[in-house]
From TrEMBL:
<dbReference type="GO" id="GO:0005829">
    <property type="term" value="C:cytosol"/>
</dbReference>
<dbReference type="InterPro" id="IPR011251">
    <property type="entry name" value="Luciferase-like_dom"/>
</dbReference>
<dbReference type="InterPro" id="IPR050766">
    <property type="entry name" value="Bact_Lucif_Oxidored"/>
</dbReference>
<dbReference type="InterPro" id="IPR036661">
    <property type="entry name" value="Luciferase-like_sf"/>
</dbReference>
<dbReference type="GO" id="GO:0004497">
    <property type="term" value="F:monooxygenase activity"/>
</dbReference>
<dbReference type="Pfam" id="PF00296">
    <property type="entry name" value="Bac_luciferase"/>
</dbReference>
<feature type="region of interest" description="Disordered">
    <location>
        <begin position="1"/>
        <end position="21"/>
    </location>
</feature>
<dbReference type="GO" id="GO:0016705">
    <property type="term" value="F:oxidoreductase activity, acting on paired donors, with incorporation or reduction of molecular oxygen"/>
</dbReference>
<dbReference type="InterPro" id="IPR023934">
    <property type="entry name" value="LLM_FMN-dep_put"/>
</dbReference>
<protein>
    <submittedName>
        <fullName>Putative luciferase-like monooxygenase, FMN-dependent, CE1758 family</fullName>
    </submittedName>
</protein>
<keyword id="KW-0503">Monooxygenase</keyword>
<feature type="compositionally biased region" description="Low complexity">
    <location>
        <begin position="9"/>
        <end position="20"/>
    </location>
</feature>
<feature type="domain" description="Luciferase-like">
    <location>
        <begin position="1"/>
        <end position="294"/>
    </location>
</feature>
<keyword id="KW-0560">Oxidoreductase</keyword>
Length: 361
């Protein structure tokens, strides 16, 4: 099972000091967080994609390419690649290039994002969001698997005899997760292709998350990719830790209360009861995260959001020390217990290449 972190790259004032980092500081902080993730033994760093303030990660492959040059083991991913507003040809080329530079340590998560105005900015209609996600990914899927593509659809100019370059490393496309919070059509899409399904459950109840994952698992089996238990599932999560749980609550509360995504809404206590947000001791984070298996089944990837709402870099790095030293080692051991033999590990370039070679033989 893989453990890692994801960032949305928000530039948010620190409510305890009133200071807002510069864009340069925030970008450099994201790099420092990725390097720290590898240092403390995490498996994955994922960045979002946004094209509007107060977010900075408008070019994920640029950032991930830089991080690739400074890391050795970390899997580099996205927590959203905007399949609706990006050109599938450019996605195919950019991530294949990154795949070569990173020696295969690359996968990505398709998503529609949560910023409505991005659609007209890139010449798209938000009312076609689902249709764009379906058609654009169908083209991307072919571009990585066919050397020469003839294609015609509704949302971009036709392609005739087109070859995307560079070709995927070892002719193995990057593994794709389809991320969705609320759209069953995206769970269906992930199942149809036999790709991974990532439920970023930081805002939703366990019942909702279970329904989405169960749908994906059922449809994965329907399309002949394996049993429901063999489907590839990832979950988001959100934590803030201190050795003493009271200290964690006291320190995190001012950040929670004015956070751009949920500030000025439910209280911290209400939100932690209703969603997977965990604010407390490392042991509380361990117990809460282990409980995800009760409704998600045995899954493959757990990513945590830790660097948002104006938290200073020093605090985030302290959080990563706790995560890597006290939390993840226990989670690895506990999640491995009683894990059925047929449940696959998280796909990597090496495992996908080995599987292709076995199939060819």
């Amino acid at each position: 099972m893989q453990f890692g972190i994801f960032s949305v790259g928000d530039v948010t004032p620190d409510p305890t000091t009133g200071r807002t980092p510069t864009e340069r500081e925030r970008i450099k902080a994201m790099v420092a967080i990725a390097l720290k993730a590898e240092e403390v033994g995490l498996d994955v760093f994922a960045t979002g994609e946004h094209h509007n303030p107060p977010f900075v990660p408008s070019s994920p492959t640029t950032m991930l390419g830089y991080i690739a040059a400074r890391t050795e083991k970390l899997v580099l991913s996205t927590s959203t690649t905007l399949i609706t507003t990006n050109d599938p040809v450019k996605i195919a080329e950019d991530f294949a290039m990154l795949q070569h530079l990173a020696d295969g340590r690359v996968d990505l998560m398709m998503g529609r994002g949560n910023t409505g105005p991005v659609y007209p900015w890139f010449g798209k209609d938000i009312r076609e969001g689902i249709n764009l996600a379906i058609e654009n990914y169908a083209l991307l899927h072919r571009l990585w698997r066919e050397d020469v593509v003839d294609w015609e659809g509704r949302f971009r100019t036709p392609l005739q005899g087109f070859t995307s370059t560079p070709r995927p490393l070892d002719d193995v496309p990057p593994f794709v997760w389809h991320g969705s919070i609320r759209s069953p059509e995206i769970a269906e899409q992930a199942a149809y292709y036999g790709d991974g399904f990532f439920h970023n459950n930081i805002f939703w109840t366990a019942d909702h998350t279970k329904r989405m994952i169960d749908l994906y698992r059922t449809r994965y089996a329907h399309y002949g990719h394996g049993t429901p238990e063999q489907a590839i599932v990832g979950l988001g999560g959100q934590v803030f830790m201190r050795k003493n749980s009271q200290d964690a609550v006291r320190e995190f509360r001012p950040y929670f209360d004015v956070a751009p995504v949920y500030g000025h809404g439910p209280s911290l206590e209400e939100f932690t009861r209703q969603t997977p947000l965990t604010v407390g001791s490392p042991q509380q984070v361990i117990e809460r995260t282990l409980s995800f298996r009760d409704y998600a089944g045995d899954y493959q990837r757990q990513l945590f959001l830790m660097d948002h709402a104006g938290l200073p870099l020093k605090t985030v790095l302290e959080q990563l020390d706790l995560l890597g030293e006290e939390v993840v080692p226990v989670l690895r051991e506990e999640f491995a217990k009683n894990r059925p033999a047929g449940v696959p590990d998280a796909p990597t370039h090496a495992s996908l290449l080995a599987g292709r070679e076995v199939t060819a033989a």
